[in-house]
Design a protein that fits this description.
The complex is a heterodimer of chains A (about 110) and B (about 120).
Chain A lengths: L2 E3 L3 E5 L4 E8 L6 E6 L6 E6 L3 E5 L2 E6 L4 E6 L8 E8 L5 E3 L3 E6 L1
Parallel strand pairs in A: 2-11
Antiparallel strand pairs in A: 1-3, 3-8, 4-5, 4-9, 6-7, 7-8, 9-10, 9-11
Chain B lengths: L3 E4 L2 E4 L4 E8 L5 E7 L6 E7 L2 E5 L6 E7 L2 E7 L7 E8 L12 E2 L3 E5 L1
Parallel strand pairs in B: 2-11
Antiparallel strand pairs in B: 1-3, 3-8, 4-5, 4-9, 5-6, 7-8, 9-10, 9-11
The chains are: A mainly beta (about 110), B mainly beta (about 120).
């Protein structure tokens, strides 16, 4: 079967750095997405990786290793507003999106 | 108004009621989706419409009935639901039905929180 694993919950301190991991086993691979979802709000697109390596976008970076079936989302200079759930999703060989259950990130002062 | 708008934001219904969820997108997208989001579970794709034609139905119970009258509007009609159907129902849109590819990022609405008593 197809599976996406990510930690259920993480806690970090304001101003620090946090890395949220995502591992996947899917039938084929056509890209990996990260979405952010604040409580009671819509998920919003953060990043897309289809080739190996690091994609940097301001305070957020996303890394992909296709050979290891592994990605991470790196958040730097954490702010209280970064408290949210972070969803990892992979596009399989049929271009179907397979979703992880999300990681709830709690930021403490 | 821009983006994807869902109404109502909250809905409480009994198991014998009939209600509808509404979704509207103002992005000019050709594909629209219904997802179910339950606590600590992955998003579950329910229905996909492309250019108003249903292209995917992921074995959803018949008590959920979608309707897509045009490319901007999507409805989810609900009848004789079960308590386990209580969840957040998310609508999304993308440029085309291959919503997973990098060129077709999903834009989500804020969801309709459904509670079935």
């Amino acid at each position: 079967g197809q599976n996406i694993d990510q930690p259920t919950e993480m806690t970090a301190t304001e101003g620090a750095i946090v890395q949220i991991n995502c591992t996947y086993q899917t039938s084929g691979f056509n890209g990996l997405f990260w979405y952010q979802q604040h409580a009671g709000e819509a998920p919003t697109f953060l990043s897309y990786n289809v080739l190996d390596g690091l994609e940097e976008k301001g305070r957020f970076s996303s890394f992909l290793s296709r050979s290891k079936g592994y990605s991470y989302l790196l958040l730097k200079e954490l702010q209280m507003k970064d408290s949210a759930s972070y969803l990892c999703a992979v596009t399989d060989s049929n271009y179907q999106l397979i979703w992880g259950a999300g990681t709830k990130l709690i930021i403490k002062p | 108004e821009t983006g994807v708008t869902q109404t109502p934001r909250h809905l409480v219904m009994g198991m014998t009621n009939k209600k509808s969820l509404k979704c509207e997108q103002h992005l000019g997208h050709n594909a629209m989706y219904w997802y179910k989001q339950s606590a600590k579970k992955p998003l579950e794709l329910m229905f996909v419409y492309s250019l108003e034609e249903r292209v995917e139905n992921n074995s959803v119970p018949s008590r959920f009935s979608p309707e897509c009258p045009n490319s901007s509007h999507l409805f989810l009609h609900l009848h004789t639901l079960q308590p386990e159907d209580s969840a957040l129902y998310l609508c999304a849109s993308s440029q085309s039905e291959t919503g997973g590819s990098g060129a077709n990022v999903l834009t989500f609405g804020a969801g309709s929180r459904l509670t079935v008593l």
